[in-house]
Design a protein that fits this description.
Length: 496
């Protein structure tokens, strides 16, 4: 059970909630803050003060005053009209993360919603009722309006939810679970959809997967180093201490740990003076990816605990400010940065695949084939890896440098952060496939060199993975092997 307070949520806690399905509770202080914020909104309504989003229209309609008797219709119309997302659905785990993040933001006590709203969100999370949310339609400013509107629909008994992975009518599931939907009151619809929770939720899941992939890339690279009888000297601690990047030093340390006791690695001058960059520079390149991951994690954890709707209510309602915390630029940059960093893990991995299969670059059988010529072996797996890294280069183009005006130019600069997060997710999936291909080729190379000479930790992995992917003794449908290794490398599969 994880207590949500609005200011202390971590990636590790989100992993436990969203992947391990741990339940949440709301802290007493946070609920007190929510209730005080709500009293401020009710005072604004009863005193007939004009405040954006409470008794005005939205966006370009912000100058349109709404009568008190129409305030509930205003919120309902907002949710229905903004629920115009299109395309494939966000993975269910992202939908769950979106709900948790939205709840945590409301618990900061700046949004003016009733306790009924946060209690219902908590109940839906704990009962694993996850909204079906289309991925496309957010500009990443004014909040993730379209995706979050689809989330909000479920709270009012509309829209769809996942049931055994399939979309079904939300009201049907709510009725079956005896969960009562709510009627949105003043400001509540706007508070639910004005925020960056779609891009941040996708970003959190991307980060969790990318972090695991970065760790996996190291032992896979270590296997490749053995298969090519690589030079261990390049990983000597003094080399990396001389540069000073702690992440580079840590990668070198882990590479040495994986390779400890190996009889397949070599020393400078034994077989060659130095290795190609894709082997020699593993700590430098992978370490730079880890630098990026650290940056991304920091930004995601800040945003996971941020008040990102508009307007925000301070000082018991004496100060209500329309600002722009819904603008997703920080997460847009972080996701674009993540895209580049993970694409580079795939780029260098594909180059190691080439060194494993190209007979001009090693002393292994051509394309690792058991019968070169008659059988193609791993030849076309390298083609697939090359195709994936090329696709990643297109996806890695920054989304955050784009902007397009909306709402009659009232909202004239947007972040495209959700697009960046979605593309980052695609790059993570592509890169896992590339590393799966490297893993298959490295296993085969180590098998040819003698797996009994492998480092103890790598030998243990080699034997386990041979149960997943048998040695290549004849050509076969290798897409099945790639898929099998990919599943091993996937930290969780509920989102698939």
């Amino acid at each position: 059970m994880i207590e949500l307070m609005g200011h202390s949520l971590t990636i590790d806690q989100l992993k436990r909630i969203c992947i391990d399905m741990e339940e949440v509770i709301i802290s007493e202080k946070s609920m007190h803050d929510v209730q005080n914020s709500r009293l401020a909104v009710e005072a604004i309504v009863s005193n007939k003060k004009t405040v954006y989003g409470i008794n005005t229209g939205f966006g370009k309609f912000s100058d349109v005053i709404i009568n008190e008797e129409d305030v509930e219709d205003l919120q309902l119309n907002l949710i229905r009209s903004h629920a115009c997302g299109v395309g494939d659905f966000f993975p269910e785990v992202v939908s769950r993360a979106m709900m948790v993040l939205r709840l945590n933001a409301l618990l900061k006590g700046y949004s003016g919603v009733r306790s009924d709203v946060v209690e219902l969100l908590k109940e839906l999370i704990n009962r694993q009722v996850h909204p079906v949310i289309p991925q496309q339609g957010s500009l990443g400013a004014s909040g993730d309006l379209a995706p979050l509107a689809h989330l909000a629909l479920v709270l009012i008994g509309e829209g769809s939810v996942f049931d055994d992975g399939q979309p079904v009518d939300a009201k049907q599931v709510l009725d079956a679970k005896a969960v009562e939907p709510i009627t949105l009151k003043a400001k509540e619809g706007l508070a639910l959809i004005n925020g960056t929770q779609a891009m941040t939720a996708m970003g959190v899941i991307n980060y969790i997967e990318a972090e695991q992939l970065a760790y996996d890339s190291e032992w896979i690279a270590a296997l490749t180093t053995e298969g090519l009888e690589g030079i261990i000297d390049a990983f000597h601690p003094v080399v990396h201490q001389a540069r000073g990047f702690k992440q580079q030093e840590q990668v070198a340390e882990r590479m040495n740990d994986w390779l400890e006791g190996s009889q397949l690695i070599t020393r400078q001058g034994e077989k060659r003076v130095q290795d190609a960059y894709s082997i020699r520079c593993i700590p430098q390149v992978h370490g730079a990816t880890w630098q990026t991951l650290d940056y991304v994690k920091e930004k995601l954890e800040i945003e996971a605990n941020a008040a990102t709707d508009n307007p925000l209510i301070f000082d018991d309602g004496n100060l209500v400010i329309s600002g722009g915390n819904f603008h997703g630029q920080p997460i847009a940059f972080a996701m674009d940065f993540l895209k580049i960093a993970i694409a580079e893990l795939a780029n260098i991995s594909e180059r190691r695949v080439e060194r494993l299969v190209n007979p001009q670059l090693n002393d292994l059988p051509p394309f690792l084939s058991p019968k070169p010529g008659l059988q193609s072996g791993a030849m076309i797996m390298q083609y697939t890896a090359a195709s994936l890294v090329s696709e990643n280069k297109t996806l890695a183009h920054p989304a955050s440098v784009d902007s397009i005006p909306s709402s009659a130019n009232q909202e004239d600069h947007v972040s495209m952060g959700t697009t960046a997060a979605r593309h980052a997710g695609s790059i993570v999936q592509n890169s896992r496939k590339v590393l799966s291909i490297e893993c298959i080729c490295a296993l085969q190379a180590v098998g040819y060199k003698g797996s009994e000479k492998s480092a103890p930790k790598l030998q243990e992995l080699w034997e386990k993975l041979r149960d997943v992917v048998p040695s290549i003794t004849n050509d076969r449908v290798f897409s099945k092997d790639i898929k099998a290794v990919e599943e091993v490398l996937t930290p969780f599969s509920k989102h698939a």
